Structure to design on (140 residues):
């Protein structure tokens, strides 16, 4: 049941991205272009937050835990440190240059453009490299 729920959530997320055209990298780049600014990304994000934040708060108060986990996995580290800044900077640079972040990139695979396969491959390779570096750092 957990995997079916995850699949349905992913399909719904992908459909929402497609319906709002947020898996189109030109939308993201238009949002970041100060000369020809396209505010549609901001409106989609605001709409998502207006729905998600109250629902999350209600779920936390009423249910106390997620449906398929013992507890909510909330961040415990509240420090703004070097790894956070470096990661956010790399994410922002990549997002601005290419126009994709992980969710829309996965959703855009269905379009079959060769560029997206290169991006997703590089994304998974980068995640694996980071995982290996983190494991090596913890053993040092």
């Amino acid at each position: 049941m957990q995997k079916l729920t995850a699949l349905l959530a992913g399909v719904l997320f992908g459909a929402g991205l497609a319906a709002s055209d947020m898996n189109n990298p030109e939308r993201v780049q238009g949002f970041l272009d100060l000369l020809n600014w396209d505010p549609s990304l901001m409106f989609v994000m605001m709409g998502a937050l207006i729905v998600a934040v109250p629902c999350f708060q209600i779920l936390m108060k009423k249910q106390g835990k997620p449906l398929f986990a013992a507890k909510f996995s909330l961040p415990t580290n509240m420090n703004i440190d070097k790894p956070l800044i470096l990661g956010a900077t790399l994410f922002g640079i990549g997002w601005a240059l290419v126009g994709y972040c992980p969710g829309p990139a996965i959703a855009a695979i269905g379009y079959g453009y060769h560029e997206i396969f290169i991006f997703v491959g590089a994304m998974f390779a980068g995640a694996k490299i980071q995982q290996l570096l983190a494991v090596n750092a913890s053993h040092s």
Remarks:
- The chain has a mean pLDDT of 88.
